[in-house]
Write a structure and sequence with these properties.
single chain; about 20% helix; about 130 residues; seven-stranded antiparallel sheet; alpha+beta
């Protein structure tokens, strides 16, 4: 399957350490929370726990939205829809922490209790302002 994320949107997603708003749904109720993430070639990876993780286990259909703004004025936004997979692999989780955490100024050991989630992006939309 080809990558559904346009190259321009990929450049925005990897340009700087911004938070993604990760949307999950369980029992018919949406849940959105900010998360650290990494993106590469149509896949978003993040480390999470709690309600977000429980929701993904119940319903793998998710969304992520990233936007950059300055003083309340949007510069660009990217919205990704996809299917999440919980990865129960200590080595893969450690590798993800080594990639994600330093991007946000944390050591790879911080948030060690979190679980790796991979999102295969099915569709993407982006806009610059």
């Amino acid at each position: 399957m080809s990558n559904p994320v346009p190259p321009e949107a990929e450049e925005l997603l990897t340009s700087e350490p911004l938070l993604a708003h990760f949307a999950t749904c369980a029992d018919g109720n949406p849940h959105v929370a900010p998360v650290w993430y990494a993106y590469d070639d149509g896949v978003v990876v993040l480390l999470t726990t709690g309600r977000k993780l429980a929701n993904v286990r119940e319903n793998p259909r998710v969304a992520a939205s990233v936007e950059k703004s300055t003083e309340g004025r949007a510069e660009w936004m990217v919205t990704l829809l996809g299917t999440a997979t919980v990865v129960e692999d200590a080595d893969a989780t450690r590798a993800a922490a080594e990639r994600i955490n330093p991007k946000y100024g944390a050591s790879p050991d911080e948030y060690a209790r979190n679980t790796l989630v991979r999102i295969a992006v099915g569709s993407a939309d982006y806009r610059t302002y």
